[in-house]
Amino acid sequence: MTSVREAAFELFRKRGMTTIFGNPGSTELPMLADFPDDFRYVLGLQEAVVVGMADGFAQASGRVTHVNLHTAPGLGNAMGAIFNAQANKAPLLVTAGQQVRAQITLQANLTNRDATRVPHPYVKWSFEPPRADDVPAALARAIHIASLPPAGPAFVSLPMDDWTAELDEASVKHVIARSVSGRAAADLEAVRALARRLREAANPVMVAGPEIDASGAWDQAVELAERQRLPVWATPAPGGGRIGFPESHPLFRGVLPPAIGPVGQVLEPYDLVLVVGSSVFPYYPYIPGAPLADGTELVAITNDPDEAARAPAGDAIVADVRLTLEALLGSLDGAPPAREAPEPLPELEPADDATPLSGAAVHATLAEVAPDGLIAVVESPSSTLALRTRLRLSRPGSYFLSSAGGLGFGLAASIGVQLAQPERPVVCVLGEGSAQYAITGLWTAAAYRVPVTFLVLNNSEYAILKWFAGMEQVTGAPGLDLPALDVAAVAQAYGVRSARVESRDELHAELADALGAGEPRLVEVKVAPGMSL
Ligand SMILES: Cc1ncc(C[n+]2csc(CCOP(=O)(O)OP(=O)(O)O)c2C)c(N)n1
Fold first, then answer.
1. Phi and psi at residue 318, to the nearest 5°
2. Whose CA is nearest to atom 17 of ligand 1?
3. 461 Cα–ligand 1 center, Å
4. Does 336 have pLDDT greater than 80?
5. pLDDT at 80 over 90
6. Largest Cα–Cα distance in the chain?
7. CB-based contacts of 347, cutoff 8 Å, min separation 6
8. How far is the CA of 156 from the centre of ligand 1 (A)?
9. CA-CA distance, 59 to 194, in Å (whole number)?
């Protein structure tokens, strides 16, 4: 005989899921009893932070990651972060405790009423096992569903008395042992047809999306662009949560604008647009126009049937991005096309040193001190583009941003990313407003000595919302100023050493020190109001 708990932990162990992110309550304690030594529990102080950390860990490790929440209120707190995780395609097993079975019907306190309906729109599967005996199979099913493409969160509600139930070992051994793999190759006919279209195109272009990085197709994307002499644009910034192409590469052109009309215009000079690993497109805000100009065709490669189905224009191949690029490269053997490589981009103007610093000056300084292999986790809305332009990140797995734009991802995810990638330096770039949505994550960074460098750009406002107000012709909106937020002092209170700086020299020195410190540090820099490009 074995207990449900023993069987569940054996399942997690087999799947390499030995790091669990959580915030416990009385309904979760039975799961955590006699916590095995080979597992690590990472405590977050609020559930949105717990899910954000797990999201970062799942994306940076490529593994299904378990996040355990406290019944109804914990799950409720986590919803915004689960919304982010589904947009990020982060493979998460989300579990929450539930009342003992004998008290669900009478709805005792802490019953997670209609537990499966709560996260329903944002998870791939939502389930409460009908019997304790079914818990291991339900967990296994959720793990497989989370990892199958497109990856995303799956939810299981777990009545607290199930963990000690006894099971016949033979009944769970197959459930624990089995694996499921979901990388599907593309229809060869469709790949050959795409190869023909590419060969015949006069002026084709590639748009690189986040799934290139997630599927491990970085080298194939570079090879395809180089062999076919394709200029490369990054998919629009708000939805493109990962970088899919080296941004210092001479073929790289920049980040597409995020709205329908402007994207159509940027793509107008090209006769064939090959979108790799992105939706078409993560648009926001609404600026109408033609999604594609007359004379421009588009083919998207995506592992997400829904992305393929909802695209407003162009054809799509639904399959694993790396396998499809490999097949495409195979079909393109032969002489390279007689196309001119695009002109190199003009050199950037040096950033102005005037104080308060611009976002561009901050990111130029970060670029000066950036150690090899730097990973940037980013939530600094008014300076995201400046960061992309100045840092030119060029290695896989180097950039994470919430594809859904729900604030609170950045600070939390950076901790998960660092835990998953202990050998690489991680900088978490935050607006002072964004930092507040997951501020308690600083405690976790300090308590577990997770050596993230938090760089906070403080402009005393919600700058991006003021920009949106201009776009939307809104005047007189309240709630867009943030006077007197002292993030450095808050960091100290959570146990993270911090510094507040104003000049570029001070920023340079503090950042360089923080990045080499081997412990979490926070550097808060005063920046000028407004957008920074
Ligand atoms: C959970 C959540 N709540 C509210 C918003 C709306 N929102 C988008 S950007 C933003 C302001 C961010 O301010 P800050 O981090 O200071 O960055 P800045 O715009 O000044 O660069 C807000 C409130 C959001 N995206 N997510």
1. -100, 110
2. 431
3. 9
4. no
5. yes
6. 74
7. none
8. 31
9. 29
Residue nearest to atom 16 of ligand 1 (CA): 433
> Is the Cβ–Cβ distance between 171 and 132 less than 8 Å?
no
What integer is the mean pLDDT of 337-355? Answer: 88
pLDDT at residue 71 tops 80: yes
Q: Tens of pLDDT along 230-287?
A: 999 999 987 789 999 999 999 999 999 999 999 999 999 999 999 999 999 999 899 9
CA atoms within 13 A on the CB side of 112: 30
Q: What is the pLDDT of residue 497?
A: 98
Mean pLDDT of 383-394: 96
Q: Quick check: 383 pLDDT over 80?
A: yes
Ligand 1 — pocket residues by CB below 6 A?
A: 80, 380-383, 405-408, 431-434, 437, 459, 461-465
Enumerate residues 6+ apart whose C-beta is below 8 A from 343.
none
- State the chain's mean pLDDT as an integer: 96
Identify the helix (H) or strand (E) that includes residue 301. strand 297-302
Q: Which residue has the higher pLDDT, 104 or 333?
A: 104
Ligand 1 centroid, distance to 426 Cα (angstroms): 22
Residues whose CB is less than 8 angstroms from the CB of residue 3 and which lie 6 or more positions away in sequence, other chains included? 163, 164, 165, 166, 167
What's the pTM? 0.98
- 118 neighbors 98 (Cβ within 8 angstroms): no
Q: How confident is the model at residue 338 (pLDDT cuts 50, 70, 90)?
A: confident
Q: Distance between CA atoms of 34 and 49, rounded to whole angstroms?
A: 25
* Residue 192 three-state SS: helix
Q: Is 270 helix (H, G, I), strand (E, B) or coil?
A: coil
Closest ligand 1 atom to residue 466 Cα is: 19
Q: How far is ligand 1, taken at its centre, from the CA of residue 531, in Å?
A: 13
Task: Give the pLDDT confidence score for residue 426 in this predicted structure.
Answer: 98
Q: Which among 399, 411, 447 is positioned nearest to 60, based on CA atoms?
A: 399
Concatenating the DSSP letter of every residue in 112-169 gives -TTGGGSSGGGSS-EE--SSGGGHHHHHHHHHHHHHSSSP--EEEEEETTSTT-EE-H
The 10 Å CB-count burial string (b at 16+, else e) for 128-144 is bbeebbbbbbbbbbbbb
Task: Render the burial of 218-251: b for 16+ CB within 10 Å, e for the rest.
Answer: bebbbebbeebebbbbbbbbbbbbbbbbbbeeeb
